[in-house]
Design a protein that fits this description.
Strand 5, helix 8 and strand 6 form a beta-alpha-beta unit. By secondary structure, this protein is α/β, with parallel strands linked by helices. The chain starts with a helix and ends in a 19-residue tail after the last helix. The chain folds into 2 domains: 328 residues, 3-Layer(aba) Sandwich (Alkaline Phosphatase, subunit A), CATH 3.40.720.10; 114 residues, no CATH class. Helix content is 38%, strand content 12%.
Length: 503
């Protein structure tokens, strides 16, 4: 074969690759399964951000029991790619799940050409149903915002906060607002403080737990967040919570109480800090947050028992995060998940409260041996004993890793260059090295500090649940839910609060 023929063959292969990448074969000419029975009156959608199949399995191995979500009668697998990238982000994935359209990375509530599309939450509102949005991260973060905002860039937090005030949804709960005063100056359409606009739209703002727990449906529209927002206006990690903190299951239970009415409701609940823990490669943190997320699902299941012929519950993930593997070269076929149980705090709390104070109090050259008692106390790692017999004992090469990370932490290294980023992902070096050692000794490995492109599990129970069996794309979740709601499954252009035509 001459060079010209080889070049033509290569170009043909390249064209085929581009076509296949842009439009996967399984997406061509597919038909959405239409629900033909009575529509569901109550619709729950639970999104475990960053929760892939490995995350689910790790939790079950850690706790020794099956997750409630894994017992739901319908079980499917869902692809997650974005319109312009194979490995998706939460904005693009959230928009696909919410509205049934593939869009570009970073876009919320609109298609790739920036045409606004209506979410299933907005459709439910226009059908006369009440609507609630709950998340363990800021309520204007990508996933929750995908259900009420329409912006080309997910970082437009002020514009998202304004959209929240204009949504006419009934309940928002979980994390706070990131930029209601537009301090980041990321909009040309400043309308005044968004929190004041939210109050002006009739929302009661609640952050005290006692006041929150005493809320009644007669209190009207609510936006509530926990008084202590640990990082980026998000709820504390489940393992860091105090008795005075409002948990994700408590937000879910209260949302159900506030939304329940004769016309029905739509409730989306996001376990957002599953993703954040996986970004930081902290297995114990994501496990405890996934348990909390599953306990939130339990609140919906209890409600469904009272309304079995009127309720649909769907549980999915928007993508996997961290490239979690249930196996590690150092433990070969061994799994020792009990090694994770002594960990008392999340990576975030250890970094914020232990490492920061340590650096302030020990400026200069402080020996690594001095911080060993703190590592043992918070993570359970041992620095004496037989590493072959006890998975909690640090091995020699791991000790070298920890010492090197400690030096970088004390030096204030940012670790953004490629070599160090691959080791620490931009997080505190010592904290990241500790969780890596602990996770590896348990038999868990991480390949990334970002999302991956593997499919996720989708589970369902109730009205129309069987349509969630099988293998399908994340846009199909929106279409299937629309169908069960009695709405023709298609992408709807956003045109105010107009009534959506039912089937």
């Amino acid at each position: 074969m001459n060079c010209t023929s080889k070049a033509k063959q290569f170009m043909l292969m390249l064209v085929c690759f581009v076509v296949v990448t842009a439009v996967p074969a399984h997406a061509k000419g597919k038909k959405v399964q239409v629900h033909k029975g009575a529509p569901a009156k109550y619709v729950f959608l639970f999104i475990g951000d960053g929760m892939g199949i490995p995350q689910r399995m790790a939790v079950e191995k850690f706790t020794g029991k099956q997750l409630l979500m894994s017992t739901l009668p319908a079980q499917g697998m869902t692809t997650t790619y974005a319109a312009d990238r194979f490995i998706t982000g939460s904005a693009a994935a959230g928009t696909s799940i919410a509205s049934g359209i593939k869009t570009n990375i970073g876009m919320l509530g609109m298609g790739p050409r920036q045409k606004d599309v209506k979410s299933i939450a907005e459709i439910a509102r226009d059908q006369g149903m009440k609507v609630g949005i709950v998340s363990s991260v800021s309520i204007d973060h990508a996933t929750p915002a995908a259900f009420y905002a329409h912006v080309p860039t997910r970082g437009q937090y002020y514009d998202i906060d304004v959209a929240l005030s204009e949504s006419d949804f009934d309940f928002f709960g979980g994390g706070g607002l990131k930029d209601p005063a537009n301090k980041k100056k990321n909009t040309k359409n400043f309308k005044g403080n968004a929190l004041e606009m939210i109050k002006g739209a009739g929302y009661k703002v609640v952050s005290d737990k006692d006041e929150f727990m005493s809320l009644k449906p007669s209190d009207g529209k609510i936006i509530s967040w926990n008084k202590w927002l640990q990082d980026s206006k998000a709820l504390p990690y489940a393992m860091d919570m105090r008795p005075q903190d409002i948990t994700l299951p408590e937000f879910t239970q209260k949302a159900i109480e506030m939304l329940d009415n004769p016309e029905g409701f739509f409730l989306m609940v996001e376990g957002g800090k599953i993703d954040w823990a996986c970004h930081a490669n902290d297995a114990a943190a994501f496990i405890h947050n996934t348990v909390s997320f599953d306990n939130s699902i339990a609140e919906a299941v209890e409600f469904a028992k009272k309304h079995p012929k009127e309720t649909l519950i769907v549980v999915t993930g928007d993508h996997e995060c961290g490239g979690l593997t249930l196996g590690f070269a150092g433990t070969k076929y061994g799994s020792y998940y009990d090694a994770l149980k002594p960990q008392e705090v999340s990576f975030q709390k250890f970094t914020d409260e232990v490492v920061t104070l340590w650096k302030e109090e020990n400026k200069g050259n402080v020996n690594f041996d001095d911080i060993i008692p703190s590592i043992t106390h918070y993570f359970g790692l041992k620095f004496e004993g037989d590493a072959k017999k006890d998975p909690m004992v640090v091995k020699d090469y791991q000790l070298a890793m920890l010492k090197d990370a400690y030096k970088r932490t004390m030096n204030g290294d940012k670790c953004k260059e490629p070599e160090l980023y691959n080791l620490y992902g931009g997080y505190d070096p010592l904290t990241t090295a500790i969780t890596h050692v602990l996770n590896n000794n348990a038999g868990l490995g991480w390949t990334s500090f970002k999302h991956t492109g593997v499919p996720v599990s989708t589970s369902a129970m109730g009205v129309g649940a069987m349509s969630f069996n099988g293998y399908y794309d994340n846009v199909d979740i929106a279409f299937k839910i629309m169908s069960v709601m009695g709405v023709s499954p298609r992408v709807y252009a956003k045109k105010g609060h107009a009534k959506v035509a039912s089937k």
